[in-house]
Amino acid sequence: MKLTLHIWRQADANSSGAFRTYELNDVSEHMSFLEMLDVLNEKLITDGEEPVSFDHDCREGICGACSMMINGQAHGPDRKTTTCQLHMRKFKSGDHIWIEPWRANAFPVIRDLVVDRTAFDRIMQAGGFVSVNTGNAPDANANMIPKQNADLAFDAATCIGCGACVAACKNASAMLFVSAKVSQYALLPQGQPEKKQRVQKMLAQMDQEGFGGCTNTNECEAACPAGISVDNIARLNREFVSAVLTSAD
Ligand code: FES
8, 134, 180, 194: least surrounded by Cβ within 10 Å? Predict the structure, then answer.
């Protein structure tokens, strides 16, 4: 198939960027979206031009690195699908495809389609952990956990931290990400001792990083490749209110 690609090119964080247009012929419908970009980059290198920088690592839908907006949708048109798992059969010959980096003040563009997502790392460093030595993995039945809680905690833990929720939200809110990380601990006994400090510290860091507030538009859930539910945001709010009302200071 033949495609016209409009790709955001930006030399570095301090430069202003712009869309550049590229024509690509002979794109196979069996290629992944990233393989299609690989082909474009080979062509650009052959022509003596700078290849397009984009983030990727696993190419298996696990690491969350392949963050980009495709025709205005985070990770493109397929639901619950990362860019690396998106295939060109979702497009047709003659299509124009607009490809941009995540747009959020807290995710500054480093180059082309690559953004700095270390704000998520700092939120995790603020409280997204259990700080006691838990020793070796215990027997599965040593801690009795209601099945429903175990399932909900597991679902929350499938967040891959890609940032699609932020990119899709008109407020650039990180509430879905933070709520998933808070929930995965709040639902399990191992997360109880530090739960009050955890939720307050992670939300404070989220605000400090410049993410916006949540106004319940639910775009985050629609864009999430892991299918994280906004029910986690409700749980986060309950955890926060409870922590503030019952904290000693
Ligand atoms: S490259 Fe790892 S999720 Fe896409």
Answer: 134
pTM comes to 0.94
Same domain for 64 and 130? Answer: no
Pair 196, 144 in one domain: yes
The domain boundary, picked from 111, 140, 168, lies at 111
102 with 127, same domain: the answer is no
Ligand 1 pocket: which of 59, 70, 102, 159 to mutate (most atoms within 8 A of CB): 59
Q: Is the pLDDT at 133 greater than 90, yes or no?
A: no
Share of the chain above pLDDT 90, in %: 92
- Structure token pair of residue 242: 């409870």
Helix axes 147-157, 175-186, angle to 10 degrees: 140
Q: What CATH number did the domain enclosing 138 receive?
A: 1.10.1060.10
Cβ < 6 A, ligand 1 pocket:
56-59, 61-66, 82-84
How remote is the C-alpha of 148 from its chain's centroid? 25
Number of domains in the chain: 2
Cβ-count burial 203-231 (b if 16+ within 10 Å, e if not)? bebbeebebbebeeeebbbebbbbebbbe
Tell me which residue range forms the domain holding 48: 3-111
Q: How large is the average pLDDT for residues 18-25?
A: 97
